[in-house]
């Protein structure tokens, strides 16, 4: 017998079988919610196996020479710990890349780190108490940057630990970092290439600005954190110079701090504006539609009669907004009046002014509003490159020429003082507050302001058409993110500000003369070394800021100096396809031929305006190609209450606790099989992870456990190793054929869906299949696998089950790498030439679909059989007929004659056994049992038919039976010229009973796929006895479980009626045992016997009392099988030696029953016993008896 049979594999494998149940009980399969189904130790053992065998690198080595599958990994920051969003994205990436490797590709997987930018600087600012630029310069940029470098990889080990713990295979040794010299040099090349293409310029732009971080943010960064806040909402008057009515324009603003920089007012040229006099005599000019905003005016609906005014109010004049153009007004603050009075303090016109809020008059502070800046430039209030009043410093505090008490105050804190000053001037018309959505800095969590800043820009608007075209060349999953969210973002994209006036980042490689006339852009370190004559090892600011480049205009002209800016870290991450390869300085041919664009990228929904966007912009600008071909976009993982996960609120469980408690596979499958893979939000719930263990892993494991138990049993009984690849073990049983075909169908489906990156469709099918495997194949085949039809049939069933589990391991390996690996390690022991088989499931190819075993008919028939069984169970439940009570007859009605033939043929026994019925009839004619009625689907048809709905609905309800049966078959009909389908008409059945049949004794129902089931519910004594026999078997099986017995453990059953049991109950018990003798033998190996027949030396295992439905109270006792010795015959065989006979008898009774049975089988019924050097040959049936 081969020694490499299936054996225990750690905790969740089956322990070695023993006939001593008390000494070696099997492991419990019930999940302990506190420990998880697969323990932390088990998964860590797999991790150790992968580490010991260098499995990831070995996989890469084995796949060398295959076509390259290119994956780009978006770089996270290592200044924080990984959360569920990272685990989710990492799981998606791991599933897809493992699948790609199993389907014939070589997949390089490099981890990346985002090392520059605000997240790092913000941590150092907190650590060193840095408040602004002066603090950094006082410390020194060099020391500041080195502080940043020191913390960049602060949590890298924690990241590596968590990522590897989740089962993800990715290369940390050969990772890329955005702070590496080579990476930064490629970023320089990208910038210079864009410069040479005239796609970069330097200009002013009003941008979201973080006063806490002293830097502008991109528009997509500003959209990351919006909050509802309460802000002041004031209406301020602006007296019109030289107005005959002494009127004042009134403007509404929620940013009083911008009023010191007011340079203009803006109105909509097409709106009607009114001069309205209030009871106090003041005349205000505002949009007619916004009169209700003034204090004292009653609230009026938009469009209401403007003449219907409160007492004391009067409309003096009406004009169009265009008639107000160029009116001049008195400045509210004089801080910039001297410099700006010639061009400023006038009324401008623009269509961006709306009448849905405010007064229809918008105050313009061009330094703090994008539209303000545009309008003021267009109207000559300010000029590009000219003076732009901006009395707010980098920290968001007022500076010169704004005086005390505002000087030095943060603008938000100065609001109250400014409002008080305006009130003292007599120009505060109204002061209230408003709650509105306002952007916050995603890093410092402080309110943003909008502020004009100098920046380098990429001309995104110039390449917008190409961006939209390249977007169409990619495939996004789910597609609506690409077609709507990302498309709309590209369609409305503005030029991209790529520079930051910061310190820790890749320096902008621009050297400029003092007069701005001479500019040099460097695209490599070699170029800069050549221009400066210096050797450069590091290109961070503190290593190159001091380098000067001689002017091309001669030695008398001051040298060129580097601009202060560094690249936005989004620019660096968008450049990662090139920079991680040090392109074009290295790997140029390899990059261009093989690894660009990427086959696959994946990140969260927020990256549509982040990394996905920057990848697309730079690849389009550089190569006019998308950077990726396929993209999977996941949604956000929220706390269970629907709120954002927050460390301070502690509203989510620690990821490491979940990993240790339930295992990585359970967490992976929970995340993949959730709405979050369809870019929808997921409310993370710990009980959902537990449900995956219960609903997926437990049934999967139980199918595997059942296989191992029975393989070991049959090997023990036959002394032959199990070989699932023997040529004579092809499945001929209908369920063997069905599970083989269903497995092939699943392989085909999963392959197709994964090829199309639809992960969210794969897992539900895998879960359904595992349910079918356990609930149909294993459940319906239990008696067969246990030997009901002989050893050969058992081997065929075990072979079918083995092949399914092996295929399932290979198919599920990308999703559940730990569980699949552990199970595969045991299953591979049965593979031919085990030592030459793949040592890891992750080295195996994805299973191939086998056309030879595909059988659509059997798949349909089994599915319909299951529908019959489910419908039959429902009928039983609603009629209070438990499954233990046999029923006489069931009729199944369906139009498919092949299904009915299968149901009467190979599938018949499964239906009869599962539903406990005695007779199964079939019919193709539903009209024998029911009438058909049709109901129109009003929700669907109403929209399409309109007024014709009533007429068509009436015709549908009156459809003749023949037409309805035809519609059932074809799913289509035409009524009064309107074609109708199954979506338009609902078919209903009304069942009837034959004449003379009691309606209480029959019931019917329509199941899935139009399966009609009719059951006769009447009972008689014979049915009651059969039910009692099933109940008895059930009691005995529970007793076996209580005794810790395995399915393969043979026992004898004895019963003892209670002393006071009446004669009638005793007779009923004996009657059912005699009547159901064959059934009891088939289920228990032998029928139960009276306790009086129990051998005196039989070892009792467990006993318990119960009351059967017949009313009989009995005590059941399970004993170990034992031999019966014929003392006279034994003495004769021992040459009439009493002493020898006693010794032989003692030896025989001390041996295991199964051991004696096997020896007799091998010795043709002869048993040899050796005692004191004497051999005694005993014959079964003569000197001893085997039951």
Automatic annotation (TrEMBL):
TM annotation in the entry: 757-778, 799-820
Enzyme Commission (EC) number: 6.1.1.5
Methionyl/Valyl/Leucyl/Isoleucyl-tRNA synthetase anticodon-binding domain span: 736-888
Coiled coil: none
Secreted recorded as keyword: no
GO molecular function terms attached to this record: aminoacyl-tRNA deacylase activity; ATP binding; isoleucine-tRNA ligase activity; tRNA binding
Reactions accelerated catalytically: tRNA(Ile) + L-isoleucine + ATP = L-isoleucyl-tRNA(Ile) + AMP + diphosphate
Keywords: Aminoacyl-tRNA synthetase, ATP-binding, Ligase, Membrane, Nucleotide-binding, Protein biosynthesis, Transmembrane, Transmembrane helix
CDD domains: Anticodon_Ia_Ile_ABEc, IleRS_core
Keyword Membrane belongs to the record: yes
SUPFAM superfamilies per record: Anticodon-binding domain of a subclass of class I aminoacyl-tRNA synthetases (SSF47323), Nucleotidylyl transferase (SSF52374), ValRS/IleRS/LeuRS editing domain (SSF50677)
Family that this chain belongs to: Belongs to the class-I aminoacyl-tRNA synthetase family.
UniProt-recorded name of the protein: isoleucine--tRNA ligase
Organism: Micromonas commoda (strain RCC299 / NOUM17 / CCMP2709)
């Amino acid at each position: 017998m081969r020694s490499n049979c299936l054996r225990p594999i750690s905790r969740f494998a089956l322990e070695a079988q023993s006939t001593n149940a008390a000494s070696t009980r099997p492991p419990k399969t019930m999940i302990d919610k506190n420990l998880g189904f697969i323990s932390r130790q088990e998964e860590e053992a797999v991790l150790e196996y992968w580490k010991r065998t260098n499995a990831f690198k070995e996989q890469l080595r084995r796949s060398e020479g295959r076509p390259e599958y290119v994956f780009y990994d978006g770089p996270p920051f290592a200044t924080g710990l990984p959360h569920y969003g990272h685990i989710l994205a990492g799981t998606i990436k791991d599933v897809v890349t493992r699948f790609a490797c199993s389907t014939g590709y070589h997949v390089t997987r490099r981890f990346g780190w985002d090392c520059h930018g605000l997240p790092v600087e913000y941590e150092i600012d907190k650590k060193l108490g840095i408040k602004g630029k002066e603090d950094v310069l006082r410390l020194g940029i060099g020391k500041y940057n080195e502080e940043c470098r020191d913390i960049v990889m602060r949590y890298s080990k924690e990241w590596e630990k968590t990522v590897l713990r989740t089962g993800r295979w990715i290369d940390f040794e050969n990772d890329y970092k955005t702070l590496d010299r080579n990476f930064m040099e490629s970023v320089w090349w990208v910038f210079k290439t864009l410069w040479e293409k005239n796609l970069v310029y330097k200009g002013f732009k009003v941008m979201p600005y973080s006063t806490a971080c002293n830097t502008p943010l991109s528009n997509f960064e500003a959209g990351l954190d919006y909050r509802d806040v309460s802000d002041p909402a004031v209406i301020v008057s602006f007296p019109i110079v030289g107005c005959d009515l002494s009127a004042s324009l009134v403007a509404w603003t929620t940013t009083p701090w911008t009023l010191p920089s007011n340079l203009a007012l803006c109105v909509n040229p097409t709106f009607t504006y009114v001069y309205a006099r209030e009871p106090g005599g003041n005349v205000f000019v505002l949009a007619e539609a916004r009169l209700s905003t003034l204090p004292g005016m009653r609230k009026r609906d938009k469009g209401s009669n403007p003449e219907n005014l409160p007492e004391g109010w009067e409309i003096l004049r009406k004009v169009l907004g265009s008639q107000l153009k160029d009116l001049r007004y008195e400045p509210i603050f004089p801080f910039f009046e001297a410099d700006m009075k010639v061009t400023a303090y006038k009324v401008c016109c623009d269509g961006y002014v709306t009448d849905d809020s405010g007064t229809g008059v918008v105050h313009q502070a061009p330094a703090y509003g994008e539209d303000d800046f545009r309008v003021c430039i267009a109207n000559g209030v300010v000029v590009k490159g000219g003076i732009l009043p901006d009395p707010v410093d980098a920290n968001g505090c007022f500076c010169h020429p704004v005086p005390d008490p505002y000087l030095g105050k943060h603008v938000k804190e100065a609001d109250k003082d400014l409002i008080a000053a305006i009130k003292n001037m007599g120009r505060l018309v109204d002061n209230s507050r408003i709650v509105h959505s306002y952007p916050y800095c995603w890093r410092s969590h402080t309110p943003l302001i909008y502020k004009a800043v100098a920046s380098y820009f990429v001309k995104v608007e110039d390449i917008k058409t190409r961006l939209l075209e390249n977007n169409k060349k990619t495939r996004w999953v789910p597609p609506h993110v690409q077609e709507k969210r990302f498309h709309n973002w590209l369609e409305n994209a503005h030029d991209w500000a790529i520079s930051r006036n910061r310190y820790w980042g890749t320096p902008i490689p621009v050297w400029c003369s003092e007069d701005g006339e001479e500019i040099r852009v460097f695209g490599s370190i070699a170029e800069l070394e050549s221009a400066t004559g210096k050797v450069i090892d590091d290109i961070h600011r503190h290593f190159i800021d001091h380098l000067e480049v001689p002017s091309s205009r001669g030695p008398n002209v001051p040298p060129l100096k580097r601009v202060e800016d560094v690249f936005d870290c989004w620019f660096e991450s968008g450049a990662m396809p090139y920079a991680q390869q040090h392109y074009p300085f290295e790997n140029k041919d390899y990059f261009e031929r093989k690894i660009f664009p990427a086959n696959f990228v994946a990140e969260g929904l927020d990256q549509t305006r982040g990394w996905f966007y920057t990848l697309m912009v730079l690849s389009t600008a550089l190569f006019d190609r998308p950077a990726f071909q396929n993209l999977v976009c996941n949604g956000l993982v929220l706390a269970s209450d629907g709120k954002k996960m927050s460390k301070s609120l502690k509203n989510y469980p620690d990821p490491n606790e979940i990993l240790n408690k339930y295992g990585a596979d359970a967490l992976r499958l929970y995340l993949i099989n959730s709405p979050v893979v369809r870019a929808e939000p997921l409310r993370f719930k710990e009980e959902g992870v537990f449900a995956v263990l219960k609903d997926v892993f437990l049934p999967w494991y139980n199918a595997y456990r059942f296989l191992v138990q029975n393989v070991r049993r049959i090997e023990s009984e036959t002394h032959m190793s199990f070989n699932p690849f023997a040529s004579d073990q092809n499945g001929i049983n209908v369920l063997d054929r069905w599970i083989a075909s269903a497995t092939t169908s699943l392989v085909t489906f999963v392959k197709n869906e994964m090829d199309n990156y639809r992960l969210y469709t794969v897992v539900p099918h895998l879960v359904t299949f595992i349910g079918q495997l356990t609930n149909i194949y294993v459940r319906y085949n239990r008696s067969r696998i246990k030997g009901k039809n002989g050893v050969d049939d058992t081997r065929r069933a075990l072979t079918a089950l083995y092949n399914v589990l092996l295929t399932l391991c290979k198919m599920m390996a990308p999703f559940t790498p730990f569980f699949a690996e552990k199970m595969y390690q045991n299953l591979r022991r049965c593979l031919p030439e085990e030592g030459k088989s793949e040592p890891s499931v992750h080295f195996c190819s994805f299973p191939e679909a086998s056309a030879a075993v595909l059988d659509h008919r059997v798949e349909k028939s089994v599915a319909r059989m299951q529908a019959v069984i489910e419908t039959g169970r429902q009928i039983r439940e609603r009629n209070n007929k438990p499954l233990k009570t046999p029923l006489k007859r069931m009729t199944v009605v369906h139009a498919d004659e092949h299904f009915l033939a299968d149901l009467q043929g190979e599938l018949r026994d499964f239906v009869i056994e599962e539903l406990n019925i005695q007779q199964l009839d079939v019919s193709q004619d539903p009209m024998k049992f029911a009438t058909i009625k049709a109901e129109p689907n009003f929700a669907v048809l109403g929209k399409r038919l309109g007024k014709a709905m009533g007429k068509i609905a009436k015709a549908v309800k009156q459809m003749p039976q023949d037409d309805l049966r035809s519609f059932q078959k074809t799913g289509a009909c035409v009524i009064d010229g309107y074609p109708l389908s199954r979506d338009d008409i609902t078919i209903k059945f009304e069942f009837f009973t034959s004449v003379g049949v009691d309606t209480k004794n029959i019931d019917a129902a329509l199941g899935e796929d139009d399966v009609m089931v009719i059951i006769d519910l009447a009972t008689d004594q014979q049915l009651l006895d059969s039910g009692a026999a099933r109940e008895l078997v059930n009691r005995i099986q529970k007793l076996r479980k209580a005794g810790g017995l395995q399915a393969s453990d043979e026992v004898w059953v004895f019963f003892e009626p209670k002393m006071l049991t009446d004669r009638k109950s005793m007779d009923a018990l004996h009657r059912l045992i005699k009547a159901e003798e064959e059934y009891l033998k088939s289920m228990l190996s032998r029928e139960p016997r009276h306790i009086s027949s129990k051998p005196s030396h039989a070892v009792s295992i467990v006993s318990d009392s119960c009351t059967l439905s017949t009313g009989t109270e009995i005590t059941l006792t399970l004993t170990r099988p034992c031999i019966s010795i014929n003392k006279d015959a034994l003495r004769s065989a021992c040459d009439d030696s009493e002493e020898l006979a006693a010794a032989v008898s003692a030896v025989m009774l001390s041996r295991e029953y199964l051991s004696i049975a096997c020896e007799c089988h091998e010795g043709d019924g002869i048993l040899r016993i050796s005692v004191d050097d004497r051999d005694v040959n005993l014959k079964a049936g003569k000197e001893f008896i085997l039951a």
